[in-house]
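$ ./design --mode recover --in tokens.txt
reading tokens...
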């Protein structure tokens, strides 16, 4: 938790127990939780914390480039502490969101920039389909 406090301080964010706990949940997972997921995970640990506090903290983390917000088409935004651009895979059946780490997208981006002379400053790529766990259940 101390290293997370150092990260928050380096981004000029006030370190509070709520911010530390929210950032830790986000930092320790690859499940891309919603604000509600984070709130529910911390409800017993921090019973006086409100859902509004979670949303405000996530907004502060986004503005400080410590988190990214994903809009994968469900009713709630998802959050990721991996801020480097990378694609995500979204399962239509269970809703699981998975990181996809590949150099292919970087090469594709360079090719597009070269062919179009368009400077790309950011991108969001989502692949939708069926995850391997759900495919097994369907078979």
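writing sequence...
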């Amino acid at each position: 938790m101390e290293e997370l406090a150092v990260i928050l301080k380096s981004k000029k964010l006030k370190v509070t127990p709520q911010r530390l706990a929210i950032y830790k949940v986000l930092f320790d997972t690859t499940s891309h939780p919603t604000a509600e997921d984070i709130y529910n995970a911390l409800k017993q640990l921090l019973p006086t914390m409100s859902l509004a506090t979670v949303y405000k903290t996530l907004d502060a983390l986004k503005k400080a480039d410590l988190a990214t917000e994903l809009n994968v088409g469900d009713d709630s935004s998802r959050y990721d502490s991996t801020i480097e651009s990378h694609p995500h895979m979204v399962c239509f059946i269970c809703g699981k969101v998975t990181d996809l780490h590949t150099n292919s997208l970087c090469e594709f981006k360079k090719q597009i920039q070269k062919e179009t002379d368009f400077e790309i400053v950011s991108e969001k790529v989502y692949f939708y389909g069926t995850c391997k766990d759900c495919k097994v259940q369907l078979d």
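exit 0
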